Amino acid sequence: MHDFTPNPPTLRRGMTISMTGEYPQLTRNSLVAAAAEHGIVWKKNMSAIVDVLVCDDSTSQTGKARKARQLGKPVVPYSWLMSGIEELRRENRMRRSTDARHELIDGHASTSAVDVQDRAIDRSLEEASGPFMPDTGVSSLERSL
Fold first, then answer.
1. In terms of pTM, does the model score above 0.70?
2. How many domains is the chain built from?
3. pLDDT tens sequence across 39-88
4. Quick count: other Cβ atoms within 10 Å of Cβ 81?
5. Are residues 100 and 67 in the same domain?
């Protein structure tokens, strides 16, 4: 019997993931798109270049799960991916907000571009996981699990 990897790495830009199994109510394409918006690379096949395998069942015996364990790669639940995407989203929003404030301080009023980016990210995450709840940092889908 296998468990999910304890203390998995933090999801970060440039990380490469693969997925096996299904995440309830979401398509693989929407998960891949949401991850890609935050600089996460998805690979169809599990290999040494993949950092983490996202899986729906800690006891999975799919070829990808067996390969990940053989390579010593972390095997994590889909909730890890969704939480990580939401954290990257918050970081991106904070960074853009800080950048916009610096531009305003320098005399350039270009906050409209930041607002447009924020709305586009909000829409893509809502499509992938439901409305983002800024007070809790949890999507409506995550609350329903």
1. no
2. 2
3. 999 999 999 999 999 999 999 999 999 999 999 999 999 999 999 999 99
4. 22
5. no
> What is the rounded (10 degree) CA torsion for 79, 80, 85, 91?
130
89-101 per-position pLDDT tens digit: 999 888 877 766 6
CATH of the domain at 29: 3.40.50.10190
Check whether residue 76 and residue 90 sit in a common domain: no
User: Does residue 20 sit in the same domain as residue 66?
Assistant: yes
User: Would you list the DSSP string of 75-127?
Assistant: EEEHHHHHHHHHHHHHHHHHHHHHHHHHHHHTT---HHHHHHHHHHHHHHHHH
For 120, the domain range is 86-131
**Token output for 50:** 């993949």
Strands 138-139 and 132-133: antiparallel
